[in-house]
Amino acid sequence: MKYCPQCANMLKKATIDNKQRLCCTDKACGYIYWNNPIPVVAIVVETELGVVLAHNKLAPQGFFSIITGFLEADETPENAAQRETKEELGLNHISTNFIGIFPFALTNQILIAYHIIAKGNIVLNEELDEFKIVAKEDLFMWNTTSKFEVGEWLKRLNVFA
Hints:
Elements: E1 11-16, E2 19-24, E3 32-33, E4 38-47, E5 50-56, E6 67-70, H1 77-89, E7 92-104, E8 109-119, E9 128-134, H2 148-156
Parallel strand pairs: 4-8
Antiparallel strand pairs: 1-2, 2-3, 4-5, 4-6, 5-9, 7-8
């Protein structure tokens, strides 16, 4: 970001609260770009066949992940997780359980993670082009990677015991 979204003057770096922030050069305007993280839901979707992993069309080939999505205005994270499960996979939720909240600094997001047990036939939306279903046991490696939400879910299920 180069220009102030309020008054169109240049932005410059300044130290505020011990962090470098972009600030409007017009003192009367006073705009500060805080760059706060964006809340995103991350969903471990489980069907009777296993855990659903999907490939986003924009992701590198062969990269499968759990389902994620942005919250809508005035939407609870739990409702967002249920909506994203329906929108992206065409599945209906049976139960929704909170896993935890995890920072994802790479994309400046806060992941609010849920485990959803779902039913129905998988129908991918326009964002996804492929899916696979894996057993919980096949996700062991995610306990030692940056996939905090999956590792935490597996730990709570005592899969690693």
